[in-house]
């Protein structure tokens, strides 16, 4: 995952051009989370600008900060088929993920004792908006055969999200088994060491 850098001075202007409205600068400018989510939903996106900002990379999904104010932050995430986030929270921030291109899948988790278990799996289509609460723990992946692009608006700006160990999650989210040990060349096999 790589986070390309936009010149700090351009952040506000890019966000306004992209959404058609300026991001709130101060916390008190946000009437409520529902108001902020509704503003995002009613944005008049500059699709040409969006296409210029999208960055697909085979090594992993890209996460780009479009703008960050005292009150909130706007991120653009580009997903190739098969790419996925880790299971994560949002550092206590709330907001919404708006799927502007393609399809994504969200898996929400809930604590069952000291384990995270999947609570609900939602398929998101182009135009759908997923609301994220301060206690939301989820994983997003692109299970489709096409690229996907999502805009994420969080308030307050994320102070760091916690990635959860996938081994705490059920079998389907465990990392792949480690590759088998490299086979040694014939004749150079070592004897097992005594313990
Ligand atoms: Fe998230």
Strand % is 25-35%
SS-based class: alpha+beta
Report the radius of gyration as a whole number of Å.
20 Å
**Most strands sheet:** 5 strands, antiparallel
Q: Name the overall outline.
A: globular
What is the CATH C-level name?
Answer: Mainly Beta
Query: In which order are the strands of the major sheet placed?
Result: 1-2-8-3-6
CATH architectural designation: Sandwich
Q: For this structure, what is the CATH homologous superfamily?
A: Jelly Rolls
User: How many beta-strand segments?
Assistant: 8
Question: If you consult CATH, what is the topology?
Answer: Jelly Rolls
| First-last Cα distance | 41 Å
Average pLDDT level: 83
Structure description:
The chain has 195 residues and is α+β, with helices and mostly antiparallel strands. The protein has a single domain (8-155), classed as Jelly Rolls (Sandwich), CATH 2.60.120.10. Helix content is 13%, strand content 29%. The protein contains three helices and eight strands; from the N terminus they run H-H-H-E-E-E-E-E-E-E-E. The strands form two sheets. The chain has a five-stranded antiparallel beta sheet with strand order 1-2-8-3-6, covered by helices on one side. Strands 5-4-7 form a three-stranded antiparallel beta sheet, with no helix packed on it. A hairpin with a 2-residue loop joins strand 4 and strand 5 (115-124). The longest helix is centred in the N-terminal third of the chain and has 9 residues, at 11-19. The radius of gyration is 20 Å and the shape is globular. The chain starts with 10 loop residues before the first helix and ends in a 40-residue tail after the last strand. Residues 170-195 have low confidence and may be disordered. Fe (ii) ion binds at residues 88, 90, 138. The site of fe (ii) ion (FE2) has 3 residues, from loops. Residues 164-195 are annotated as: Disordered.
């Amino acid at each position: 995952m790589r986070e390309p850098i936009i010149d700090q001075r351009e952040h506000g202007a890019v966000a306004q051009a992209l959404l058609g409205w300026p991001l709130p600068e101060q916390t008190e400018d946000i009437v409520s989370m529902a108001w902020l989510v509704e503003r995002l939903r009613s944005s008049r996106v500059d699709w040409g600008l969006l296409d210029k900002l999208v960055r697909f990379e085979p090594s992993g999904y890209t996460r780009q900060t479009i703008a960050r104010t005292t009150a909130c932050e706007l991120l653009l995430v580009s997903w190739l088929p098969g790419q996925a986030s880790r299971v994560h929270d949002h550092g206590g921030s709330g907001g919404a993920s708006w799927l502007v291109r393609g399809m994504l899948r969200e898996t929400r988790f809930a604590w069952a004792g000291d384990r995270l278990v999947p609570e609900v799996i939602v398929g998101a289509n182009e135009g759908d908006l997923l609301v994220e609460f301060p206690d939301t723990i989820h994983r997003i992946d692109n299970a489709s055969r096409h690229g996907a692009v999502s805009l994420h608006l969080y308030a307050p700006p994320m102070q760091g999200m916690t990635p959860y160990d996938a081994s705490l999650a059920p079998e389907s989210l465990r990392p792949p088994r480690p590759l088998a040990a490299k086979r040694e060349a014939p004749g150079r096999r070592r004897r097992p060491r005594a313990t």
